[in-house]
Amino acid sequence: MLERYARPAMADIWSLENQYNTWLEVEIAIDQAWAEQGLIPADDLKAIQKNAGFDLKRIDEIESQTQHDVVAFTRAVSETLGDEKKWIHYGVTSTDVVDTANGVRLKQANKLISSDLKELQKLLKSQAIQYKDTVMIGRTHGVHAEPTSWGFKLARWYDEIRRHIERFERVAAAVEVGQVSGAVGTFANISPEVEESVCASLGLNNQPITSQVLPRDLYADYLSIIALIGSSLESFATEIRSLQRTEIREVQEFFDKKQKGSSAMPHKRNPIGCENISGLARVLRGYLVPAYEDITLWHERDISHSSVERIVLPDATTLLDYLLTRFTKILQTLEVYPDRMAENVNKTGGLIYSQRVLLMLIDAGLSREKAYDLVQPLTKKAWDEGLSFEQLVKESPKIKELLSPDHLADAFDYHYHLRRINEVFTRLGIH
Known about the structure:
By secondary structure, the chain is mainly alpha-helical. It has helices spanning 8-13, 16-36, 42-51, 56-66, 69-78, 94-130, 150-175, 192-202, 217-243, 272-286, 288-293, 304-332, 338-345, 354-363, 368-385, 389-395, 397-402, 405-411, 421-428, and strands at 135-140, 143-149, 177-178, 205-206, 251-252, 335-336. It is elongated.
């Protein structure tokens, strides 16, 4: 992953040094389990726990000859030990170590992502409450529909992130697993008890059955949820981008006084953060195809998945961590313009209240068809001639016969459209 899109804590998790650290942690856990089974003498285990280490340059040197990174690693570790080195990698195969270590690193990454999600949800909740009654126009098909509020929109995002937290907890638990089952997963050279001990010591669950490798549908499922979260962030970012357009300008990304929006046009203030989120969400979705194709391996295993996962697992988790924290910052500093929102609510001369008028006429005794056919020509005249729909309604002889001035005043009051928001917030547990 490019440093530009990698936060330090996540970058450390996927560093080469941490890869080897987790590999070593797994190897030592395996020896600990063997010692519990009575195979490895206590003194040998103590020596391994105390002295086992590695040198990155030495691993590179060995790998240049062996063309196998796990063999290079185990040999480099063995060079730091005495006779007890014979217990390193005893009874296991490469993927026992690699897959289990991936479980460790994914657990580390998941902790960061879970924290990111909860931080964003917390912010959305507080801002939803803050802007609960800040009226703005709701749009369908990009066209003015009926009034809503900025807080109501944020509450929808809050609930979407709540669903993502639930989804992520499920897939995170599914990939925080290990397996130490031997060459084809049959435990021929190692016991299930060793696997269970190793996984327990590392804080992982053990996969019930494998074929030397963990089932790759686990990773595909995990990456699909990461892509789904990214798509939601893109949806939120796209809304902000649209609302920042000059013609609307109801919200705007914070623009620092030293910031530049364009190399050519000094006036420009572009929603670059949200555009960045939209672009990187596409990258996240791009990881889905190779992740799904990794499910198909030859027989018990091949190595076609390995090169893919060296890219997609670090990159996807790193990008999601970046996107979540960046969007949270955008939202924290977002400039919201309630006056502009109110101005846009009134922009169409009351056309947005056409349904309210329609329903009032039905309540007054008209059939739906007659009420609709009475109201629609007035909306057309208002649209086409740039007139006030509210004024046309109040001047209509047929409507005045059915609705009093007080009823008509109520029909064009936006508060009616926000009257149920408290009930919805209660449903969501937003107080």
